[in-house]
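Protein Entry — a single chain follows
Next Lines — sequence and tokenised fold
***
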Amino acid sequence: MGIHFWVKDDFDVFLIDGLEKRMEALQNRIQPKFSTLGRHFADRLSAHGTDEFFPHVARHARRTVNPPKDSWVAFAPAKRGYKALPHFQIGLWGTHLFIILAVIYENPDKKGIAERLSSQLTSLTSLPAGYIVSGDHMKPDALKIDATGSAGIESLLERLQTVKKAEFLVGRHLSREQAADMSADEFMAFAEESFDHLLPIYDIVIGRK
């Protein structure tokens, strides 16, 4: 398939002024793509055999003034709600695309998750070059694992245990240019490879390993 899944105009949605106009563009241009990814990867993640996964396309329904700065489709083993569970996301900021495993502040088991990941730190440090970690899903910035190393990861995991609003994200970023240059087949292969690397970490997060 030679056509592109993402185009640069997709990322320019986040430059549109005003909540109503930006939401209209998200609904018309981005959410159909998220729905396609949701159907495909929910099945692939379910085939891992841990849980049955369901897709959740972000609707931003609670927003009344400020337009969203990013958007995503999440995958979690629950039909309703996902934020309290460890979950996967494919999403966009204006600058880049992300594919992540996320433990965000609503999760009630952050201390246990941090302890499990700390005890198997090599599962994170042995990820291929280019993988990232972050402590805040509300910010686009992230740390490359091969640059921050064990000490940087341990600092994020310690914060996950002690700070109420702390979070832990691990995954991959693609610049908007890289994403737009990929054919649809290339992007799907990239996303599949990313999930294949993240699923063993998910197993640690949920206490399966």
Observations:
- The radius of gyration is 17 Å.
- The longest strand covers residues 96-103.
